[in-house]
Amino acid sequence: MQTETQLVEAAQAGSADAFAELVRGYRDRLLRFLLTRCASDADAEDVLQDTLINAFRYIRSYDPRWRFSTWLYRIAIRNAANSRPQELLELGDLRDEENDPLLQCIADSETENLWASARHLLNDEVFAAMWLRYAEDMSVNDIATALDRSVSWTKVNLMRGRRALDAELNATEDRSKAYG
Amino acid sequence: MDKLANRLRRDADRIEVTVSEELERRLDASLQAATPQDEIVRRPKSGRPALFWWASSLTGIAAAAAVIVIVNIRQPQEELPPATPANIVAAVPVIDWKTESAMLTGPLQQELEDLQSDIRKAERQVREDIGL
User: Is this complex's ipTM strictly greater than 0.90?
Assistant: First the structure.
């Protein structure tokens, strides 16, 4: 069983098998994250493929001072942004909630999920920061690096996201108490 | 661990997303076809020796000085033909002034006599005032 560092070194030497082994543990999580950044399942799968190819192609420029997962998510975020139509990027945070792949995924599970509320309450960037913090367990510094934002921006927006979701969580609990 | 963080982690875990076998085959095939690129060698910010900047500065200063000298160098002046004095008197038209000379001697003499008379009167008055 090779460590992540050994797999990185083997991939840097040109081994596609080592790279495939290296990213095997990230594939599902990356795809789940990309559902929050892409317009459809198919787009998320395409972006995942591009992300892994780009990561392998540029593996020699990977700086081991970064966590590998942070570097991978950063590439994924950039590829997801490039996959969106330019006109939608110019219009800003405009989501097609009916076809939102994450919301469809949550609806399929038929359980109440706070991430669905987060999707409605938070904009894309704050949602991504919250997702990386609580779903991917990233540190604030790693989130700032992955999103290409400052640490202070990340802290402030995590706090805003938390405040909005805290209020939503309390309201949900109050409603469920009221209805027994 | 706070309530919100716990809830968010639990709800994220509930979102089950897995890479399908078909996608997995696609990913493996595309990775096998790719090759890592050589590391991009970043050029250092200051690749030129310090002497280069001194040499270029001195060259610039020398060039500027040369331009100033060339522009301001005294040009050989062409010798002008000797100027002939213009005959101004001939050029000015003669005006026939019809005037008479003023008789100034009479009134000035009268003025002088009046002043001397005033001085004498004043002197006399002063003498009377002081009792001489």
Answer: no
pLDDT in tens, A101-143: 777 777 766 667 888 888 888 988 999 999 999 999 999 999 9
Question: Is the distance from CB of A42 to CB of A149 less than 8 angstroms?
Answer: no
Compute the distance between CA of residue B57 and CA of residue B51 in angstroms, rounded to an integer.
10
Q: Of the candidates A111, A165, A166, which has its C-beta nearest B14's C-beta?
A: A111
CB contact under 8 Å between A12 and B7, yes or no, is: no
SS (H, E, C) B18-29: CCCHHHHHHHHH
**Domains of chain A: residue spans and CATH:** 1-92 (1.10.1740.10), 96-180 (1.10.10.10)
Q: How many CB atoms lie within 10 A of CB A76?
A: 25
Q: Is the CB of B4 less than 8 angstroms away from the CB of A115?
A: no
Amino acid (1-letter code) at residue A149: R
